[in-house]
Amino acid sequence: MFTAKQVFPGILHITDNMGVSFTLIEGEERAVLFDTGYGMENVSSWLISVTDKPVKVLLSHGHHDHMLGARWFQQTFMCTEDMDEFIERTGYLQRTKVRKQAEDRALKVPSDFMTAEIPLPEPIRFSDKTGPFESMTENLGKLDVQVIRVPGHTPGSIVLFIRKYGVLLTGDDWNPCTWMWFPSSVSAPVWRDNMKTLIELIEKNAGKADTVICSHQPAPRKGSEIKAFLDYMTDERFKSAPYVDMGAQINTHIIREESEDWTLVFDKDKL
Fold it and tell me: Could you tell me if residue 54 is inside a domain?
């Protein structure tokens, strides 16, 4: 069962039965769905109950918990830099792991979950630049959504910015618990600097990221939190961070700020 919270008019933050979140952004003429979840439930059919607008699906990146739900759509869009991730994470091995996770939660798994075809996403065609980052704008009818590629969690990760409401949707480029240890992730310092640059550009262009919507949080966060989180991740903390076992042959280290419940896990070999 999906649960949904209206953040602002036309912005609906949705959480699926596996606990991952994605967002519907609706203008007067069109809508954008940012991610699709694990795919255990038919999000395409469910959307009919909340919007009558044509919906364009943008995938924040190529990881399974954000795009296995693309199986319910005929067309989706994603950065080409994450296509290898998409292919791997829609494969048999990953689907087997996800099915086991769902069964462990006593969730109903679609009978065709292991075999359903998931079409390759169409590439996002960027037509602009926001500072050093490729970008483009989706005009939904009296509501513009800026789409920006910010390499971090994956090389093709995108974020969305809605200037009208001062809302930044970060995908997995930032969560209070952020993972930067995957083989395709950029180094932790590069990710931090990219995110700081993004926020500085938004503010420089008379925008404000007062509200942040994350993929692994059912409720929005304050924009001040992401800035404080990034400031906390100093070079000194990167160097002194202790090792943490993530069950992979990667030199994973962790930075924790207990009072704020912040976590960053990263590959120290990339420093």
Answer: yes
